[in-house]
Amino acid sequence: MEKVADWQLKTPLQHQLTDWTNSALYKGMVEWAKIAKSPEYYNWLYNIGEKTNWQLGKRIYHADDHVVGLMYLEMYRKYHEKKMLKPTKKRLDWIMKNPSDASIKNFSYEKGNNCTDRWSWCDALFMGPTVWATLANVTGKKKYLNFMFKEYKATTDYLFDTNENLFYRDDRYFNMKEANGQKIFWGRGNGWVFAGLAIIMTELPDNYKERPYFEDIFKKMAAKLATLQDSSGYWHASLLDPKSYPAPETSATAFYVYGLAWGITNGLLDKETYLPVVQKGWQALVRAVHPDGKLGWVQPIGADPKQVTSDMTEVYGVGGFLLAGSEIYRILK
């Protein structure tokens, strides 16, 4: 983990500092910083917050521009500086008072379609609700959870396939099929949801009335995902058609390993059943690390399965790797 984290610190970030790509990295880096011996990782995150003035992205409603708030709230927990909290709280307060009336149906990136003002794609279930749940915990105000739950349920009712226990990326994929005739379930897309569930449930009060709802989805996904791991420990870009996408895909693998490890640590998943899956997955992730610390086999930015090579990397893959390793560390500890 230190090797991968250090490689990333030495590698200039290619996206805007408040971008969702970097924000996923920051969340993993925060969890690594909590167990690392050196303060340099917290220092790196603090400097990024100073550069962004602790602001979210510019799009008011878009979940991709909210997820950087995860890092800000974690830093607020550590340093208790109000500047780290205020912008995120201000944005979410405004949204709660002025909720979007956009439809989550008929997903499109075309100009004039405002479906992304709500969580209309499965990745958004990592980008948005995790911040709402964390803010609720930090402030002690359940109003954020109530808003989050309502929106989360709307998305899940629409995109979750109860036969496969997996999420469609968005409604464009409802009737599409892979080359083998199976439904299209994107590896990283479901990884976003699964990792997001672990983060959300970490923040939920034990007595929160809707907690069983999240636990149920998590357990169903975990059971399905465990059956889709290949013999070498990886998951693939397409969950139900790995033969068409035979290369490993480490961002999905990392998010699944993180979620499964979290489930074991928190008593939601049977250790005897799931620990071998976690161990095999972690060993696979480690094999994907280049000698210099670069994590390979990360599918580039997209919305559906694509081919991957060992030289491909991205910051969100590194974030997932650090999340996975940090949670496994807690099991071993």
Task: Give a written overview of the molecule.
This protein is mainly alpha-helical and 333 residues long. It has a single domain, classed as Glycosyltransferase, CATH 1.50.10. The chain contains 13 helices and two strands, in the order ααααααααββααααα. The protein has helices at residues 2-10, 20-35, 40-52, 69-79, 86-97, 124-127, 129-139, 143-159, 187-203, 211-228, 250-265, 271-287, 315-332; strands at residues 160-161, 166-167. The chain has a two-stranded antiparallel ribbon. Helix 4 packs parallel to helix 7 (129-139), helix 7 packs parallel to helix 9 (187-203) and helix 11 (250-265) runs parallel beside helix 13. The mean pLDDT is 98.
Q: In a nutshell, what does this entry contain?
A:
This protein has 333 residues and is mainly alpha-helical. It is built from 13 helices and two strands.
Keywords:
mainly alpha; 6hp_glycosidase-like_sf; Glycosyltransferase; 13 helices; single chain; 333 residues; Glyco_hydro_88
What topology emerges from the helices and strands here?
Elements (H helix, E strand, L loop, with lengths): L1 H9 L9 H16 L4 H13 L16 H11 L6 H12 L26 H4 L1 H11 L3 H17 E2 L4 E2 L19 H17 L7 H18 L21 H16 L5 H17 L27 H18 L1
Antiparallel strand pairs: 1-2
**Annotation field: number of helices:** 13
Low-confidence stretches: none
- What general form does the structure show? globular
The top level CATH class name = Mainly Alpha
- Total E-strand runs: 2
* Average residue-wise pLDDT: 98
Distance between the termini: 15 Å
User: What's the architecture, going by CATH?
Assistant: Alpha/alpha barrel
User: What class do helices, strands and sheet pairing give?
Assistant: mainly alpha
Proportion of beta-strand residues:
under 5%
Number of domains: 1
The string of secondary-structure elements, in order, is HHHHHHHHEEHHHHH
**What is the spatial order of strands in the main beta sheet?**
1-2
Radius of gyration: 18 Å
The portion of residues assigned to helices is: 40-55%
CATH fold call: Glycosyltransferase
Strand count, sense and barrel status of the largest sheet are: 2 strands, antiparallel
